[in-house]
Design goal:
Length: 208
């Protein structure tokens, strides 16, 4: 997977201004493996810089970055080798970002599991401490320690022992509905006209 070179903050503005010209120009491929590798890395880095601009919440800046990339690809309309190189570099960046996203999702899940475990242990310790203290002082509503305090407050909650035994006056009713997309899809494919629905045909793409 391609490794994107970090962009120093002081050079970001200059590199952003040069990105369109650098990507849009035709590749001067020397034929040596070393030079081809350098060119591929430069392309990947340049496209990665444009990809960083897509993180903005500013729709105009996002559209501008996408326009730069599209212009860089369209500039090679008559040069199949250069277009293929830029498209391939773009695929490298896409794979890198998706791989990074997957890794961060795994890390987020790991941290969520650790947080859940910590919270569970803290809850168990608190319950055990309160159980012991209230056994020793059943009438107490507050416990004071050198650095902490345990406070309590009274509350009420309804517990339903048998919902079926409740009269209708104690029940609330609600209804929900949602479109049956599977049935609608089959009907539209069969040629039926359904007001409020239409069948859109899409083509999906996948990088290999």
């Amino acid at each position: 997977m391609a490794v994107l070179t970090p962009i120093p903050a002081s050079a970001a503005a200059v590199q952003s201004a040069q990105s369109t010209a650098g990507l849009a120009c035709s590749l001067q491929r020397s034929g040596s493996l070393w030079q081809l590798g350098i060119e591929a890395q430069e392309l990947t880095t340049g496209i990665g810089q444009l990809a960083e601009q897509l993180e903005t919440d500013d729709p105009e800046q996002r559209a501008s970055a996408l326009a730069e990339l599209e212009a860089a690809l369209l500039a090679e309309e008559g040069n199949k080798a250069a277009l293929a190189a830029k498209a391939d570099a773009t695929c490298w960046v896409i794979e890198h970002l998706r791989g990074q996203a997957a890794y961060r999702q795994q890390q987020a899940k790991r941290l969520t599991d650790l947080a859940r475990s910590d919270a569970s242990r803290a809850e168990a310790l608190e319950e055990s401490l309160i159980f012991v203290l209230t056994q020793l002082q059943p009438a107490a509503t507050r416990f004071s320690f050198p650095n902490h305090e345990l406070n309590s407050r009274k509350s009420s909650a309804v517990v339903i022992d048998d919902e079926q035994a409740l009269d209708a006056e104690w029940l609330t009713f609600s209804t929900t509905s949602k479109p049956d997309k599977n049935a609608i899809k089959e009907a539209l494919k069969a040629g039926r006209q359904i007001a409020g629905a239409q069948l859109l045909n899409r083509r999906s793409w996948r990088i290999h």
